[in-house]
Amino acid sequence: MASQAPAHEEDSMDSFLDTFKSQKYKGGFNEATWEEEFDKIPMFMKKAPSEIDPEKNPDLACIQSLLFEGKSPEEQAKIYKDEGNDHFKEKEYKKAIAAYTEGLRKQCSNPDLNAILYTNRAAAEFYLGNYRSALNDVIAARKQKQDHLKAIVRGALCHLELKNFTEAIVWCDEGLRISSKEKKLLETRTKADRLRRAEQRDARKATVKAKQEQSQREALLQAIKDRNIKLIQQTCSEEEEVASDGITGLSLDELSSGNATAAKVYLDQKKNLHWPVLFLYPEYRQTDFVSAFHENSRFIDHLIMMFAEDLPPWDVERKYLPNELELYFEDEERAELHQVDVERSLLEVLQHRRYFVKAGTPTFLILVKHSPFCAQYFADKKVHRTA
């Protein structure tokens, strides 16, 4: 006959069970977040962290230490390799890199395994676009195993992405000596060879273009020199002034204008110069720009074209008529104005002993003759009435 528990023990158990009727258990999961909390338990985790911090995950660190306990560096490295492969299959490349790196830190003595770890990490780096890091890894892999074909394939692909086409071909050739029918190497070599040929072709074109531009530059500068036209740089001082005998030291960029169109003086097939010319209207603070003023064109022809039909909207008094206008250029060094005969050509004016083309753009002032503004404008300036 079974013995019965003493009455006092039964009373204690009943008392303990009664507490659950009035007091809710506080150690249970939250109804709204139970799945997240459940996933934090090492035995039920769907995915482990890529790096285990013993302070943040002491239980997981303990399980991991048990997993590696008594295992050699090679066995531990293999575990990390397999873990990295699992991450790689899930396209979690950063986690894969972390796992392969941990495997390499074990410094096992198996060169084949180390070569695989380096090559696999290179593959993960490659898919993240870190081609230089991937290349460094396959180079390290080949130090472990020189004929590791996957490392060679990956290295060829890295060189291809880095536009090192010659190096990509060299790596492909090395791999094809190991496996002559390796499809990826054959495809990569064909592509690298095609891109290298295109690169070489573009380089030859660039060289020819550079020579042509240099020839054009020299011809242009020589044409300016032959015409005794003087140039001055935008911010040069008196000592930096460039006269006709020193003009060959200028570059084409220094002959470009400062206007929005970036027009430049050029020499046409008939050996005529065309200049970008800027006209200033100080009375109204307005400007006009002619992008290609033929050196043999007269100023009056341009003035007629600019003002004969459609007067500018800012000329509310309708006084800017071709026959009522005067043209001047400024000698900044002497603070003087020189009047320009509008019947003269641009070339004749540019050859004036006191005219200097600044920043590659001849500039002229246009004023209405005998106007009050004109008299006021000339009040504190020395004016030469002929040019």
UniProtKB/TrEMBL annotation:
SUPFAM superfamilies cross-referenced by the UniProt entry: TPR-like
CDD domains the record matches: CTWD_Cns1 (cd21380)
Residues annotated as transmembrane: none
Domain (Cns1/TTC4 wheel): residue spans on this chain: 267-371
Any single Gene Ontology cellular-component annotation: nucleus
GO biological process terms, semicolon-separated: protein folding
InterPro entries xrefs: Csn1/TTC4_wheel, TPR-like_helical_dom_sf, TPR_rpt
Coiled-coil features, chain-numbered ranges: none
Keyword set, alphabetical order: Repeat, TPR repeat
Pfam families in the cross-refs: Wheel (PF18972)
Any GO MF annotation of the entry: Hsp90 protein binding
Family to which this protein belongs: Belongs to the TTC4 family.
Protein name: Tetratricopeptide repeat protein 4
Organism ancestry: Eukaryota, Metazoa, Chordata, Craniata, Vertebrata
